[in-house]
Design brief:
Layout (H helix, E strand, L loop, with lengths): L6 E3 L12 E5 L6 E6 L5 E5 L7 H18 L10 H12 L5 H18 L9 H10 L21 H20 L27 H10 L6 H10 L3 H5 L6 E2 L4 E4 L2 E2 L14 E2 L8 E4 L2 H21 L20 H13 L11 H12 L4 H8 L4 H8 L4 H11 L4
Antiparallel strand pairs: 1-2, 2-3, 3-4, 5-6, 6-9, 7-8
């Protein structure tokens, strides 16, 4: 049989003259062997044997067999003109529906990184090797959409940025597989270099927490910081509390909303975007202990003083912790006040506002409150999160354990 002659492959037992499933041939130009199959749509797909094969003709027949199997199982998709950039745009238009503005913005950054690297590549030509090379060497691009990141131009992308972009690409390509654009997801086998585990939050000891509160007792936001330590509420949840969320007869505080870190609104109003809490479990009723009841009453008294001082400038919006004019306090203002509060207590470790949540959880668990109860109180979906991420063991607990273990056997 001539090497320049096409070799047809028919279904087993089918009579001559029926449509061939595929063929094996050798190109006259360079002598390379190839296998070709015709899809049910009529499109023809050709794959070439690697030049280093010891028996390229046999390898071509084996390649044809694989292609025929993939056609039969539906794994072999027809060629598409869809590019990565176009597909990401289509996918995000669907995936972003109903998502928070901060999430949409975050995904736009990830899409910009991916578009810079693979935007013009056709979907079916995107390979795992290409994605892996990007994951190993990705740098900050220069794009109009990334003006806020221009200062990072030419620097490596952070592990977190690459992780978010890779997750977005995997999700988008999974949908592309489901819709028949590509036979398999090339982003699945890609791996990022392992990073050291992120340090957990810091929890203050009871003495440190008391020292901080004492140093800030006369400041305007003292009730906010105290309530954070008494309830473990997230800062955004506490800033978004309304007077009506307080139920003194039942001794409950309803947490039903949170202040977002950005929003769809333009300008300054974007800093005051209020929406649902982080998760469904975060919507909760917190049972207020006696000292926390006193803190809420102090917050109400503070609010009344601010309203009287503002006079005609007061804008009634119902917030439990309003600004001097009655509006919600933006995150940036609250964080500035937090830094000032820390400066008044130089003897305590510098922590984030979110670490007040770590402090509450650690102290509550140490007091003997059951993990599943604490998880419900702070809005965690599982006690495992409460224990693995938030619980901190204090040094003096080892001394207590030593005494408890004395005479164990």
């Amino acid at each position: 049989m001539s090497r320049n002659t096409r070799l047809g492959a028919r279904k087993q037992g089918s009579p001559a003259g029926k449509r061939k499933l595929g063929s094996v041939f050798q190109r006259k130009q360079d002598g390379r062997w190839a296998a070709a199959v015709t899809l049910p749509s009529g499109k023809r797909i050709t794959r070439y044997v690697k030049p280093d094969q010891p028996d390229p003709e046999r390898a071509a027949h084996e390649l044809l067999a694989r292609l025929i199997t993939e056609v039969g199982s539906g794994e072999l998709a027809p060629p598409s003109e869809m590019t990565v950039e176009r597909w990401l745009g289509e996918y995000l238009r669907r995936a972003n529906r109903g998502k928070a503005a901060a999430t949409v913005k975050d995904r736009a950054y990830s899409a910009a990184y991916l578009t810079e690297a693979f935007g013009k590549v056709r979907l079916e030509r995107l390979s795992a090797q290409q994605i892996q090379r990007w994951a190993d060497t990705a740098m900050h691009p220069v794009k109009d959409a990334l003006k806020a990141h221009r200062k990072y131009e030419g620097q490596p992308l952070s592990h977190r940025a690459k992780l978010k972009a890779l997750q977005l690409l995997r999700s988008a390509l999974t949908e592309a597989v489901g819709l028949g654009h590509i036979p398999r997801n090339p982003a699945v086998p890609v791996r990022l270099e392992r990073q050291p585990s992120r340090p957990k939050g810091v929890a203050w000891t009871p003495e440190q927490a008391q020292a901080f509160l004492a140093a800030n007792e006369q400041t305007t936001l003292a009730p906010l910081w105290r309530l954070a330590l008494q309830t473990g509420g997230r800062l955004g949840e506490l800033l978004a509390l309304k007077v009506d969320d307080y139920q003194p007869v039942r001794r409950l505080l309803r947490i039903e909303r949170t202040l977002k870190y950005g929003g769809a609104e333009e300008g300054k109003d974007a800093r005051r975007t209020v929406g649902p809490p982080k998760t469904e479990r975060a919507v909760r009723a917190f049972p207020l202990p006696t000292d926390a009841l006193a803190t809420v009453e102090a917050a109400l008294a503070r609010r009344e003083r601010l309203r009287e001082a503002a006079g005609a400038l007061w804008q009634e919006e119902g917030w439990l912790f309003p600004s001097e004019t009655g509006r919600i306090i933006p995150h940036g203002n609250a964080h500035r006040s937090w830094r000032e509060a820390l400066a008044r207590a130089p003897e305590v470790p510098v922590v984030r506002p979110h670490d007040l949540r770590h402090t509450f959880i650690s102290l509550a668990l140490r007091r003997g409150v059951k993990p599943e109860v604490v998880a419900r109180m702070v809005g965690h979906s599982s006690p495992l999160i409460t224990l693995r991420i938030y619980r901190q063991v204090f040094e003096d607990e080892f001394d207590e354990a030593r005494e408890m273990l004395s005479g164990l056997v």
